[in-house]
Amino acid sequence: MTFSLHGLAVARGIAIGRAVVIAGSRTEVRHYFIQPEQVPDELARAQRARDAVAHELQRLSDELPADAPAELAALLDVHLMLLQDEVLSHGIDQWIVERRYNAEWALVTQLEQVARQFDEMDDPYLRERKADLEQIVDRILRHMRGQACPAALQGRTSAGASDSSDTLILVAQDLSPADMLQFKRSVFAGFITSVGGKTSHTAIVARSMDIPAVVGARQAHQLIRQDDWLIVDGDAGIVLVDPSPAMLEEYRFRQRQVALERERLARLRHAPALTMDGQNIELLANIEQPTDAASAVQAGADGVGLFRSEFLFMGRDGQLPDEQEQYQAYLAAVEGMQGRPLTIRTIDIGADKPLERHGRDVILNPALGLRAIRWSLAEPSMFRVQLRAVLRAASHGPVKLMFPMMAHRHEILQTLALVEQARQELQQRGQPYGAVQLGAMIEVPAAALMVDVFLQYFDFVSLGTNDLIQYTLAIDRADEEVAHLYDPLHPAVLQLIAQVIAAAQARGKSVSVCGEMAGDPSMTRLLLGLGLRSFSMHPAQLLTIKQEVLRADTRKLAPWAQQVLVANDPEAQLHASS
Ligand code: PEP
Ligand code: MG
Asked: Does domain 267-576 have CATH number 1.25.40.80?
């Protein structure tokens, strides 16, 4: 039966393929594809974990005191029976062999299949056995932990690992940014999540992968079943489940059109980004990993305006990279940029990018908590490790250093003092380091309002509009329930952006936008009209924005942008001709 789900369009294009559903409640387990030669080991690993649990349950049963309630013994028997049921073990093995899922993924996928069967049973006693099955799966998962295959520990997902000739589309309740990263360069042709906002970090990584994605498609992970045929319309934010042949044909036609449009845009790669009135516009890339530098160069970026360094720290089971490892990563990015400037943003963990090591389980307002520079200043020795690694990499090519989420003058002073201390430490060691320009992200309204203070201390500023919108409007950027209120064109947001651009220009300092607004073609003319000359975005968006730049005339856009700024309804004004 065909049905459609509506969510938020986060990454453009059309994907058609079969669903790979990640069980909703256990998204924290590792999901990755294994290599064909790893299949026997993975099967053995799954078997060992099952055997260990069987052994554990048997021992518990044997050691039950004579006066233990009879129900307890019966319950252990039920658990043993469920564990030894062939449906579970065969299913797990099948996912490993046929789809090359890692053992944990195979286990939770099979749990989901069997759990659905339990849900459909009429007998309430049998229906309740689902909870027992879940407990067994949790036990097996505990045994699997600590014996993951090495590929998982390196967070590697091999491209083309799946045997299936079908295109695959990943469906999950939610995916952490670390999970998304693991799926980067994997076999998936599209992503769907049930929760999430347009500028959540999961959406950002999906966009950087340049494959169609829809987030906030409520209950998608429950309504879509393994292997369902899906169409993901990343432009409209729509998912079609079990589409008719006529629908498939229409969307295949649209897919071809998208491909043709891309080919056309590719011709702009070597064209200079000049407006019609001759203004040179800097187009920079946002990257998450050193290897992304290649796609930045490939897209024709003038440099990297935002390297989100926190992705080096995530998904590592709490093992933070040491100075040498970080240095190697930054060096790889410097080399990858082949002489173009690389802006490394210091670690921005917290909010929707938690670090496993973080300690406290429940943080009431994570976006307002110990995030970004606050965390770095609370862990100064860790922060200096990162600063030293960046300074060392800067001796190999042009590097800029940028700090996230600053709001206070004392944070500026503390940060600059730590940079100085890191330099001195390198000097004492006799280790070479390079000169770096220092910049601040303006992403808290307080920073935008006192941007002059920031401009006194820093060489450049970059507007983090994703957070600036979130904090100005008090809208959680990752929450699909309030996504309709997350408005980049809110007059208060526009005024803050305009003020920051004007203040930086008045002081002759460079200012960029590195939030998602910079890669949104419907915003390009407005930002140019407000005086912005530097945009940083996902490499995949670069040529679309260049096309907007080539069509723009800033002499006409400047007075029009001032009208948008004072309009009661900036959105309507934006669509009025400039
Ligand atoms: C921003 O907030 O706009 C930004 C670029 O940083 P991040 O999205 O990583 O929070
Ligand atoms: Mg931010």
From this structure: no
